[in-house]
Amino acid sequence: MSLPAPIALRLRQIRLEADGIASYEFVSADDAALPAFTAGSHIDLHLPHGMVRSYSLVNAPSDGGRYVVAVQHDTQGQGSSAWMHTAPRVGDRMQAAPPSNDFALVEDAAQSVFIAGGIGITPVLSMLRRLRELGRPWRLQYASRSPRETAYADTLRAMAGDGREVDFCFGSSRTDRLDIAALVRDAPAHAHLYCCGPARMIDAFIAACAMRPAHTVHFERFAATSEAATEGGYEVVLNRSGARYTVAPGKTILDTLLDHAVDVPYACTAGVCGTCRTTVVSGEPDHRDDFLSAQEKQANDSIMVCCSGARSKTLVLDL
Ligand code: FES
Q1: pTM for the whole thing?
Q2: What structural domains does the chain harbor?
Q3: Collapsing DSSP states into helix, strand and coil, what is residue 54?
Q4: How far apart are CA 51 and CA 128, in angstroms?
Q5: Ligand 1 in contact with 268 (CB < 6 A)?
Q6: Alpha-carbon gap, residue 117 to 127, rounded angstroms
Q7: What sign results for the dihedral spanned by CA atoms 224, 105, 181, 295?
Q8: Ligand 1 touching residue 275 (CB < 6 A)
Q9: 67-88 pLDDT, tens per residue?
Q10: Dist. CA 130–CA 122, nearest whole Å
Protein backbone atom coordinates (compact mmCIF):
# COMPACT_ATOMS: atom_id res chain seq x y z
CA MET A 1 0.00 0.00 0.00
CA SER A 2 1.54 3.35 -0.93
CA LEU A 3 0.62 6.92 -0.16
CA PRO A 4 -0.68 9.08 -3.01
CA ALA A 5 1.95 11.51 -4.29
CA PRO A 6 1.50 14.84 -2.50
CA ILE A 7 0.51 17.99 -4.37
CA ALA A 8 2.58 21.15 -4.03
CA LEU A 9 0.39 24.06 -2.94
CA ARG A 10 0.95 27.76 -2.42
CA LEU A 11 -1.00 29.66 0.22
CA ARG A 12 -2.70 32.55 -1.57
CA GLN A 13 -4.94 33.99 1.13
CA ILE A 14 -5.73 33.74 4.84
CA ARG A 15 -9.02 35.21 6.07
CA LEU A 16 -10.55 35.45 9.51
CA GLU A 17 -14.02 33.89 9.08
CA ALA A 18 -15.19 34.11 12.71
CA ASP A 19 -13.67 34.32 16.18
CA GLY A 20 -11.07 31.54 16.30
CA ILE A 21 -11.75 30.36 12.73
CA ALA A 22 -9.51 31.22 9.78
CA SER A 23 -9.75 30.07 6.18
CA TYR A 24 -6.79 29.24 3.95
CA GLU A 25 -6.93 29.41 0.18
CA PHE A 26 -4.39 27.23 -1.62
CA VAL A 27 -3.53 27.22 -5.31
CA SER A 28 -1.11 25.05 -7.23
CA ALA A 29 2.50 25.91 -6.42
CA ASP A 30 3.65 25.18 -9.96
CA ASP A 31 0.62 26.36 -11.96
CA ALA A 32 -0.41 22.76 -12.74
CA ALA A 33 -4.15 22.02 -12.64
CA LEU A 34 -5.26 20.84 -9.20
CA PRO A 35 -6.94 17.42 -8.98
CA ALA A 36 -10.73 17.73 -9.13
CA PHE A 37 -12.84 17.04 -6.06
CA THR A 38 -16.43 16.32 -5.14
CA ALA A 39 -18.55 18.07 -2.49
CA GLY A 40 -17.73 16.80 1.01
CA SER A 41 -14.08 16.07 0.15
CA HIS A 42 -11.09 16.85 2.34
CA ILE A 43 -7.38 17.29 1.78
CA ASP A 44 -4.72 15.91 4.11
CA LEU A 45 -2.39 18.80 4.73
CA HIS A 46 1.22 18.03 5.68
CA LEU A 47 2.26 20.05 8.72
CA PRO A 48 5.64 20.18 10.51
CA HIS A 49 6.98 17.27 12.60
CA GLY A 50 5.21 14.68 10.43
CA MET A 51 1.73 15.89 11.42
CA VAL A 52 -0.93 15.33 8.78
CA ARG A 53 -4.38 16.85 9.27
CA SER A 54 -7.56 16.41 7.27
CA TYR A 55 -9.42 19.59 6.41
CA SER A 56 -12.70 19.71 4.48
CA LEU A 57 -12.84 21.79 1.32
CA VAL A 58 -15.40 24.57 1.66
CA ASN A 59 -15.45 25.76 -1.94
CA ALA A 60 -17.65 24.26 -4.66
CA PRO A 61 -16.22 21.51 -6.88
CA SER A 62 -16.86 23.81 -9.88
CA ASP A 63 -14.46 26.31 -8.27
CA GLY A 64 -11.65 23.86 -8.93
CA GLY A 65 -8.62 26.13 -9.36
CA ARG A 66 -8.15 26.34 -5.63
CA TYR A 67 -8.63 24.46 -2.39
CA VAL A 68 -10.13 26.43 0.49
CA VAL A 69 -10.16 25.01 4.02
CA ALA A 70 -11.16 26.53 7.35
CA VAL A 71 -9.49 25.74 10.65
CA GLN A 72 -10.78 26.35 14.16
CA HIS A 73 -8.18 27.14 16.78
CA ASP A 74 -8.60 24.26 19.23
CA THR A 75 -6.93 25.17 22.52
CA GLN A 76 -7.36 21.55 23.72
CA GLY A 77 -5.92 20.05 20.54
CA GLN A 78 -2.56 18.50 19.69
CA GLY A 79 -0.99 21.70 18.33
CA SER A 80 -1.91 21.48 14.66
CA SER A 81 -4.62 24.14 14.78
CA ALA A 82 -2.42 26.43 16.88
CA TRP A 83 0.31 26.05 14.27
CA MET A 84 -2.15 26.78 11.46
CA HIS A 85 -3.30 29.93 13.25
CA THR A 86 0.17 31.32 13.85
CA ALA A 87 2.81 30.02 11.45
CA PRO A 88 1.65 30.02 7.81
CA ARG A 89 2.19 33.17 5.76
CA VAL A 90 0.66 34.09 2.41
CA GLY A 91 3.01 32.80 -0.29
CA ASP A 92 4.21 29.78 1.73
CA ARG A 93 4.50 26.44 -0.02
CA MET A 94 2.82 23.45 1.61
CA GLN A 95 2.01 19.90 0.58
CA ALA A 96 -1.22 17.92 0.72
CA ALA A 97 -2.49 14.54 -0.39
CA PRO A 98 -4.99 14.83 -3.27
CA PRO A 99 -8.63 15.33 -2.20
CA SER A 100 -10.61 12.32 -1.11
CA ASN A 101 -14.20 11.99 0.03
CA ASP A 102 -15.57 10.04 3.01
CA PHE A 103 -18.73 12.17 3.23
CA ALA A 104 -20.19 12.08 -0.25
CA LEU A 105 -23.19 14.12 -1.35
CA VAL A 106 -26.13 12.43 -3.07
CA GLU A 107 -26.55 14.99 -5.81
CA ASP A 108 -29.89 13.83 -7.19
CA ALA A 109 -31.80 13.68 -3.88
CA ALA A 110 -35.15 15.46 -4.14
CA GLN A 111 -34.61 17.03 -0.69
CA SER A 112 -31.53 17.33 1.50
CA VAL A 113 -31.43 18.32 5.16
CA PHE A 114 -28.18 19.36 6.85
CA ILE A 115 -27.29 19.72 10.50
CA ALA A 116 -23.95 21.38 11.20
CA GLY A 117 -22.25 22.21 14.49
CA GLY A 118 -19.43 24.75 14.68
CA ILE A 119 -16.56 24.02 12.32
CA GLY A 120 -18.64 21.08 11.03
CA ILE A 121 -20.10 23.60 8.58
CA THR A 122 -17.03 23.21 6.34
CA PRO A 123 -17.90 20.08 4.28
CA VAL A 124 -21.58 21.06 4.43
CA LEU A 125 -20.86 24.42 2.81
CA SER A 126 -19.29 22.76 -0.21
CA MET A 127 -22.34 20.49 -0.49
CA LEU A 128 -24.78 23.39 -0.23
CA ARG A 129 -22.89 25.25 -2.94
CA ARG A 130 -23.01 22.21 -5.20
CA LEU A 131 -26.75 21.65 -4.67
CA ARG A 132 -27.42 25.32 -5.32
CA GLU A 133 -25.63 25.04 -8.65
CA LEU A 134 -27.79 22.01 -9.45
CA GLY A 135 -30.96 23.89 -8.49
CA ARG A 136 -31.79 21.40 -5.72
CA PRO A 137 -33.59 22.43 -2.52
CA TRP A 138 -32.00 22.08 0.91
CA ARG A 139 -32.48 23.00 4.50
CA LEU A 140 -29.65 23.78 6.92
CA GLN A 141 -29.76 23.96 10.70
CA TYR A 142 -26.46 25.44 11.87
CA ALA A 143 -25.60 25.50 15.57
CA SER A 144 -22.70 27.41 17.07
CA ARG A 145 -21.79 29.04 20.35
CA SER A 146 -22.46 32.64 19.32
CA PRO A 147 -22.85 34.78 16.19
CA ARG A 148 -19.22 35.91 16.52
CA GLU A 149 -18.06 32.28 16.39
CA THR A 150 -20.19 31.38 13.37
CA ALA A 151 -18.15 31.04 10.17
CA TYR A 152 -19.74 31.80 6.79
CA ALA A 153 -23.00 33.15 8.27
CA ASP A 154 -23.32 35.94 5.67
CA THR A 155 -22.46 33.57 2.83
CA LEU A 156 -25.16 31.18 3.96
CA ARG A 157 -27.78 33.91 4.37
CA ALA A 158 -27.02 35.06 0.83
CA MET A 159 -27.54 31.51 -0.46
CA ALA A 160 -31.01 31.17 1.07
CA GLY A 161 -34.22 31.51 -0.96
CA ASP A 162 -35.73 29.53 -3.87
CA GLY A 163 -36.20 26.38 -1.80
CA ARG A 164 -33.10 26.84 0.33
CA GLU A 165 -33.53 27.52 4.06
CA VAL A 166 -30.95 28.40 6.71
CA ASP A 167 -31.65 28.45 10.44
CA PHE A 168 -29.05 29.43 12.99
CA CYS A 169 -29.03 28.25 16.56
CA PHE A 170 -26.73 29.92 19.07
CA GLY A 171 -25.95 28.69 22.54
CA SER A 172 -23.24 27.05 24.59
CA SER A 173 -25.13 23.79 25.05
CA ARG A 174 -25.71 23.32 21.35
CA THR A 175 -27.30 19.91 21.22
CA ASP A 176 -29.68 20.75 24.09
CA ARG A 177 -31.02 23.72 22.20
CA LEU A 178 -31.02 22.14 18.80
CA ASP A 179 -33.85 19.64 18.67
CA ILE A 180 -32.23 17.11 16.37
CA ALA A 181 -34.95 14.52 16.96
CA ALA A 182 -37.61 17.00 15.81
CA LEU A 183 -35.56 18.04 12.78
CA VAL A 184 -35.18 14.44 11.71
CA ARG A 185 -38.83 13.65 12.46
CA ASP A 186 -40.00 16.63 10.38
CA ALA A 187 -37.76 15.84 7.40
CA PRO A 188 -39.61 14.36 4.39
CA ALA A 189 -39.43 10.56 4.29
CA HIS A 190 -37.42 10.59 1.05
CA ALA A 191 -34.94 13.27 2.20
CA HIS A 192 -31.22 12.60 2.56
CA LEU A 193 -29.95 13.79 5.95
CA TYR A 194 -26.41 14.96 6.74
CA CYS A 195 -24.72 15.87 9.99
CA CYS A 196 -21.22 17.14 10.77
CA GLY A 197 -20.31 18.44 14.18
CA PRO A 198 -19.12 17.45 17.63
CA ALA A 199 -19.51 13.91 18.95
CA ARG A 200 -22.64 14.59 21.02
CA MET A 201 -24.38 16.08 18.02
CA ILE A 202 -23.46 13.12 15.80
CA ASP A 203 -24.61 10.65 18.47
CA ALA A 204 -27.97 12.42 18.77
CA PHE A 205 -28.30 12.46 14.99
CA ILE A 206 -27.56 8.74 14.65
CA ALA A 207 -30.07 7.92 17.38
CA ALA A 208 -32.73 10.15 15.77
CA CYS A 209 -32.15 8.52 12.37
CA ALA A 210 -32.39 4.93 13.64
CA MET A 211 -35.64 4.26 11.77
CA ARG A 212 -34.53 5.91 8.50
CA PRO A 213 -33.04 3.91 5.61
CA ALA A 214 -29.28 3.79 6.18
CA HIS A 215 -28.47 5.02 2.66
CA THR A 216 -30.22 8.33 3.39
CA VAL A 217 -28.26 9.04 6.60
CA HIS A 218 -24.81 10.61 6.27
CA PHE A 219 -22.48 11.96 8.93
CA GLU A 220 -18.85 12.90 9.46
CA ARG A 221 -17.16 13.09 12.83
CA PHE A 222 -14.22 15.39 13.37
CA ALA A 223 -13.22 14.43 16.88
CA ALA A 224 -12.60 10.99 18.32
CA THR A 225 -14.86 9.73 21.10
CA SER A 226 -12.51 7.03 22.43
CA GLU A 227 -8.93 6.97 23.61
CA ALA A 228 -6.45 5.27 21.29
CA ALA A 229 -5.32 1.77 22.29
CA THR A 230 -1.79 2.25 23.60
CA GLU A 231 -1.66 -0.57 26.12
CA GLY A 232 0.58 -2.63 23.81
CA GLY A 233 1.65 -6.17 24.73
CA TYR A 234 0.69 -7.90 21.47
CA GLU A 235 2.31 -8.71 18.17
CA VAL A 236 1.42 -7.45 14.72
CA VAL A 237 2.27 -9.73 11.78
CA LEU A 238 2.38 -8.40 8.23
CA ASN A 239 0.88 -11.10 6.04
CA ARG A 240 2.64 -10.14 2.81
CA SER A 241 6.17 -9.72 4.11
CA GLY A 242 5.95 -12.00 7.13
CA ALA A 243 7.47 -9.27 9.31
CA ARG A 244 6.50 -9.39 13.02
CA TYR A 245 6.55 -6.40 15.32
CA THR A 246 5.75 -6.16 19.00
CA VAL A 247 3.51 -3.22 19.89
CA ALA A 248 5.05 -1.76 23.02
CA PRO A 249 3.07 -0.01 25.79
CA GLY A 250 2.56 3.65 24.87
CA LYS A 251 2.47 2.89 21.13
CA THR A 252 -0.33 2.41 18.63
CA ILE A 253 -0.11 -0.05 15.76
CA LEU A 254 0.48 2.90 13.45
CA ASP A 255 3.36 4.18 15.64
CA THR A 256 4.91 0.72 15.52
CA LEU A 257 4.54 0.37 11.74
CA LEU A 258 6.01 3.82 11.13
CA ASP A 259 8.88 3.09 13.53
CA HIS A 260 9.74 0.18 11.23
CA ALA A 261 9.33 2.25 8.05
CA VAL A 262 6.21 0.36 6.94
CA ASP A 263 4.37 2.54 4.41
CA VAL A 264 0.80 2.95 5.72
CA PRO A 265 -1.55 5.76 4.68
CA TYR A 266 -2.92 7.84 7.55
CA ALA A 267 -4.26 11.33 8.12
CA CYS A 268 -6.26 12.21 11.24
CA THR A 269 -4.54 9.70 13.59
CA ALA A 270 -7.77 9.91 15.61
CA GLY A 271 -9.95 7.19 14.14
CA VAL A 272 -12.32 9.48 12.31
CA CYS A 273 -11.19 9.84 8.69
CA GLY A 274 -10.86 6.23 7.52
CA THR A 275 -7.54 6.69 5.73
CA CYS A 276 -5.64 4.05 7.69
CA ARG A 277 -8.26 1.29 7.28
CA THR A 278 -6.38 -2.01 6.99
CA THR A 279 -7.67 -5.53 6.31
CA VAL A 280 -7.37 -7.99 9.21
CA VAL A 281 -6.38 -11.50 8.13
CA SER A 282 -6.68 -13.05 11.60
CA GLY A 283 -6.81 -12.05 15.23
CA GLU A 284 -9.29 -9.92 17.15
CA PRO A 285 -9.05 -6.12 16.91
CA ASP A 286 -9.84 -3.84 19.84
CA HIS A 287 -11.80 -1.20 17.92
CA ARG A 288 -11.41 2.37 19.20
CA ASP A 289 -12.33 4.34 16.09
CA ASP A 290 -15.37 6.39 15.11
CA PHE A 291 -15.22 5.41 11.46
CA LEU A 292 -16.35 1.78 11.18
CA SER A 293 -20.02 1.01 11.71
CA ALA A 294 -21.05 -1.29 14.58
CA GLN A 295 -21.59 -4.05 12.01
CA GLU A 296 -18.15 -3.56 10.49
CA LYS A 297 -16.58 -3.67 13.94
CA GLN A 298 -18.38 -6.88 14.71
CA ALA A 299 -17.11 -8.45 11.46
CA ASN A 300 -13.53 -7.88 12.71
CA ASP A 301 -12.16 -7.94 9.17
CA SER A 302 -10.73 -4.45 9.15
CA ILE A 303 -9.08 -2.13 11.62
CA MET A 304 -8.10 1.52 11.88
CA VAL A 305 -4.47 1.10 12.81
CA CYS A 306 -4.04 4.69 14.00
CA CYS A 307 -6.05 4.14 17.18
CA SER A 308 -7.29 0.56 17.51
CA GLY A 309 -5.38 -2.30 19.15
CA ALA A 310 -5.71 -6.05 19.60
CA ARG A 311 -7.57 -8.25 22.06
CA SER A 312 -5.68 -11.31 20.78
CA LYS A 313 -1.96 -11.92 21.35
CA THR A 314 -1.33 -11.64 17.59
CA LEU A 315 -2.99 -9.61 14.88
CA VAL A 316 -2.26 -10.51 11.26
CA LEU A 317 -2.73 -7.61 8.85
CA ASP A 318 -2.94 -7.59 5.07
CA LEU A 319 0.21 -5.50 4.67
S1 FES B 1 -5.77 7.96 10.20
FE2 FES B 1 -7.80 8.67 10.22
S3 FES B 1 -8.87 6.90 10.89
FE4 FES B 1 -6.82 6.35 11.08
Answers
A1: 0.76
A2: 7-100 (2.40.30.10), 112-221 (3.40.50.80), 234-317 (3.10.20.30)
A3: strand
A4: 30
A5: yes
A6: 15
A7: negative
A8: yes
A9: 999 999 877 665 788 899 999 9
A10: 13
